[in-house]
Each structure stands twice: as structure tokens, then as C-alpha cells.
Amino acid sequence: MTKYRTLLLATVGFNFSFLIWFSFAPFTGPMAEEFGLSLAEIGVLSSAAIWLAPFGRMLTGWLSDKFGAPTVFAIVLGYVGVFSMASAFAETYTVFFVERLIVATAGITFVIGIQHVAEWFDEENLGLAEGIYAGVGNAGAAAGALVLPRVFGTNWDGPLFATNWRAAFFYTGVVAVGLAVVYYAFGEAAKDEQTRQATKDGATLSEWLHTATRYGTVVLAFAYVMTFGLELSMNGWLATYYREGFGTDSLVLASTFAGTFSIAAGLLRPVGGYVSDRVAREERDILPVFTGRYREQWTFVALSFVVVAMFGMTLAGLSGDVLVAVAAGFLVGMGCAFAEGAIFAQVPAMFPNNSGAVAGVVGGVGTVGGIVYPLVYAAPLLPNLHVGYAVVAASMIPIVALAGWVFQPHVAAEATTSGFLDRSDSGAEPSDD
What is the set of domains in the chain, with CATH numbers? Predict the structure, then answer.
């Protein structure tokens, strides 16, 4: 293996994991008809896709440090594929719900790939490499929204199934099992034995607890709630929003509108990582209030943009013009992409020997937004489907304020060694941009 083949393998694996994770989103309409689901119940289904991700990501991040990414990635893809195939045969909603809950753990592969890429790339190019991995990988949601309803159309009558969503779940499961075999056969855990051993030695419970409570880990985890958690919620909700909020009857058209968000949130993510690398290498202050903390400055700018864009999403929806709302959704996706790329440029750069564990905490906590935000969007107390975005935006302001505190130069300098539970020093060097 080389670092570029590793990047390709991880990216393909995560891209398909994201596709199968949100493969239900384009088919919420026909599933609701078959199982008799209300709009609020669709919101619960969308939220449920994230329920197991927080703990799952924390666990698999640590397991990747301990046992190597190829083994862990293959195991997850294997069982996800099996349960996706099984969900195609579900006859009751209870069985279907439980099986899709397990399939939804496909999202935990994110931290496995983050750790795998970090084991192969040097610090000066980490932001771009992780951005490519996560960005193209996240675009799997767009692939699902754009491709699945076209391949498995309303009039599907193919082998085994006469129902389009059942066929989609079965055949995507088959592909997942195949990818599991490929990942295990061709993946290598690290670029050399020294790197692999250093990471493995750091995979202890005490070291995990220490890194999980450092200022840097905590603030990036909350920042990921309002970016990746937001992305998850939009991936599972937007097709329903464009259909119900604007009376878009066509399943393909509503999914296409939703896909524009996923494209922005996925494919623009490398830009966020690249800018973080660039400002760090050139030691460029783009926000002098955090002088000398180059990666932090870019992260703060991107987080602030997300808040503004979410308020804009509500205004666009209230305009009644669906195309304006689609454009606003694209801007929200762009903000998510820039911020996520910036966050995961910081994670492996700050914690080089614990990248899996920290990625697990950040990625795991970050998914909470995907659980909570859909419940806000579909809340019956709101006057319409457009106001929920502004409510979510308001909830993000304290997170941006926390980031502003941690990113202060005197706090950021010890963000990897000082934490909220104690201020002990584990012997690690302070983060240096």
C-alpha cells in the first residue's frame, strides 16, 4: 500500500457507508404509505438513524487505534450489509425499525477512516487528505439521494422484489459485504511499524479519558455537533422538507433538491481542510483576535458562517420560493463543509498518537445534532416547517462562544494538556500550529 491507495480505499469505503446510512431518505414517502407513518414518525425515523452513532464512534475510534483500521472497517461493513439485506424482507414496522437502526451504524466508519488516513499522512498535508476522505465520503449521501430513486424507481419490478425501497436496501447490502472483504484483504493499518506501535500503545482507557476531556477535544466535539450533526439532520430531512414544505410531489425532484445540499457538504469539505493547512503553513492571521492560532482562526470563521446560513435558511423558506430555499440549503452545506474540514484538520494535528480516540469522541458527540435537530424541524409546536432552522441556529450561538474562549492564544496553547476535569499534564507537548 501507499498513502494514496490507502486514501482511495478509505474514501470508497466511507462513501458507500454514507450512501447505505441514508439510503432510507429518498424512500420515506413509499415507506410511510406501506407502514402508515405520520410526518412526526418520519422525523423519528430520521433521528433514529443517528441514535447509535455517538457511542459507536467513540468505541470504534479506540478500537481502530488498538487493532488497526482495516480489521474494524471490514467488520462494520460486513454486519451493516447483512442487516441491510435483512431489512428488505421486513413485514412489520417494528422489525424494520430495529434492522435499520443497526444499518445506521454504518456512520461509525467515519472515525475508522479518519484514523486510517492519519496513520499514513504527514501533519502538513493532513487537513487536505482528511478533507478529501471525509468530503468525498460524505457525498455518498448525495449519491444516495440522486442515484437510488432513479435506479430503483417507483415502477421497479426487478429480481426478488416488486417494491423499489426493498430492492434498494437488499442490493446496497450486497455491495457493503463485498467492500468489507476488499477492505480487509487490501488495507494496511499504518505506513510503518513504529507508527502502528505508537498508536497501539496509546490506546488505553486512562489515555482515552484524558484526551476525551481536554479543552481541544471538547470544543471540537461541540463544534462538530453544529456542523456534522447538522449535516446528518439535513441529509435525513431535506427530501421530506422540500416535498412537504413546498408541495413538491415528485420523489425524484425532492430528492434532487436535497442532493444539492449533500453535494456542497461533501465535495467542498477538502477546501476546509486545505485552507486550514494553508494558513498553518504560511502562519497567516486571517482573524487577528486569535493571533498565532492559525487553524483555530479558520475554524471560528467557518462556524460563524454556519450560524448565519441557518438563519438564512428560515428566511428563504418563508419566501415561499423553493429554488431560493434550495440555494440557501446549498450555502448551509458549504458552511458545514468548510467547518468540518477545518475541525478534522485540527484533530490529528493536535493529537497525532491518539487520532482514532479523539476522532471517535469528536465524531461521536457530533452526531448528537443529527438526533436532536430533526425533532426540532418536525416539532408540531412550530408554526411551519421553515422556522425550525432559525431555532437550531440560535442553539448554535453558545457553541461558537465556547470556541471563541478556547481559541484564545493562552488557552489554545494548552488545549491538548489541560481539560475540564483536571489540569494535569500527561507529558504531551502543547499544540503548535
Answer: 3-412 (1.20.1250.20)
